Amino acid sequence: MIAETPAPPYYAVIFTSVRTDDDLGYAEMADRMVALAEQQPGFLGIESARNDIGITVSYWADMVSIKKWKMNIEHLEAQRLGHEKWYSSFKTRIVKVERDYGF
Amino acid sequence: MIAETPAPPYYAVIFTSVRTDDDLGYAEMADRMVALAEQQPGFLGIESARNDIGITVSYWADMVSIKKWKMNIEHLEAQRLGHEKWYSSFKTRIVKVERDYGF
Q1: What is the pTM of this model?
Q2: Cβ-Cβ contacts under 8 Å, B83 against chain A
Q3: Phi-psi category of A42—alpha, beta or left, where left has phi over 0 and alpha has psi -120 to 50?
């Protein structure tokens, strides 16, 4: 689903990743992190797609919300496991959405 | 491939879309647009994934490069066909990348 975000400015985290072959626990954790993110203050929406690489974009009201989400204790554990087991490489980009349009 | 972008700040276009069932000419046009984008001044890289939705993120040195790419005559025609035939909905977000990290 395309996220229904408010009028800019707002913020986003673009998480681009390449997976390892280790699937154990990955899908459950990914689902859990989406459910957990949705409960955080300032969460605006999330979009995700994967084939050769995965791209997940989460949208946030402000930078403080992004920092708090990054430091969420359960999310920190997921990040640790991701680094250790599930991702062979990734890039996280913190961005400010300045304009948007669509139909 | 994860795009190898320079140190921030730089800019990006997040294009999120839902496709119609009309595949005629779509893959060729998508490939052509990537090849054309790569030739534009200020182009830094591109990442793309699709299953339920498609997410394409293109990275650019500055806003002027993004505006010129949006107005490229061949790209305008692709946008027109996309709106008319290939996408049932889309959202384009113009963003400034403020921080990034990865491994």
Answers
A1: 0.97
A2: 103
A3: left
